[in-house]
Amino acid sequence: MYGELAAAISPCFVSACDPDLIARVFTNYFNRSKPMMVDQTKNLLLGWINIFKSAASALVAVQDAAETLATHLLALPDKIKEIEDRICQNDACLGPVISSFMKQVSEAINIVKSITEVKDAATSVTQNVPQVIQHIEGAIESVQSVPDVDSIIEMILTGQLQKIEDILASFRLTKELPALIDNIKDNTLDVFQFAKSHSSQGTNAITVVEDILSTAWETYPLEFTTDQYGNVRAGLIEIQTLIRDNINEPLRNLTSAFDALSHPAAQLPNKEGNFNMKMGVASYQRWSSVSMDLPCTRRRTKHYTVSGFSGSFSYPEFYSCPYGPKRLPWPNQHIPYIKLNLG
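Given the sequence above, the corresponding structure tokens read:
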């Protein structure tokens, strides 16, 4: 390609550039390098799109689950307060187990309420994902485009094309990929940190809810010595039922949504904030090692005697002799590359 390029741009320094000739060189190079460079980069970018789409779907599921939980929670504190006021008269709820239970209920409601607030954060993070996908789709279009001939000619005439690495500057992807990297840096880090910071909240809340629901009141008879008609016990079971019907399942659904988000979040290319790229040209020395049998000559002398006369003469003798191994150099190869650090 580089010999062809040198021949294509040489008229620029003699008379005038031939755009068709230059375009043909880059088009041929683009078509030859497509399986290695273009297709690999395209597949990588398509993989990122799938990851972001999965993350966006998981974020929407988190929003929906948080919204459902918030709806169930809306009237719950007032209902529990009404039951508490009804059953806890005359110091009926001062026993250590009942007191601890009511504190757990209050704690569970506060924890769950704080969890439902992730909806706004999830919405904010989700809003940026379509923009990232759009940027990646633009990069896929760029990687499949042949360099613009006018920009190449301008580089030649202005002296910007002085070494092999400068050829990369003519590729559209080279100009657009740094902006894409910056865009992904910001938004993927937001998604990953959101998933990481909120994933344990649901698990902690489920533990508190399970403690509330697992309390078996028949094992604490001393707590109900003044509960002559069983109203206190019935009210506590009523609170457990409210927790089970309004919090338990919606909370587990929200936790499952966070678990579903953790998978695409772990696959994001910038989850640790170290995403960067480097573009360049790798140059390789090329040679062949050759061994073969070649025809060789050596001098032979023949002696003779004819009619009493003796003499001799020399002649060349041909024979097969080994040659090599011999290192035969070829023109160096120069391969453009894109190096991505997905830390």
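The chain has a mean pLDDT of 82. Try to locate this feature in the token string yourself.
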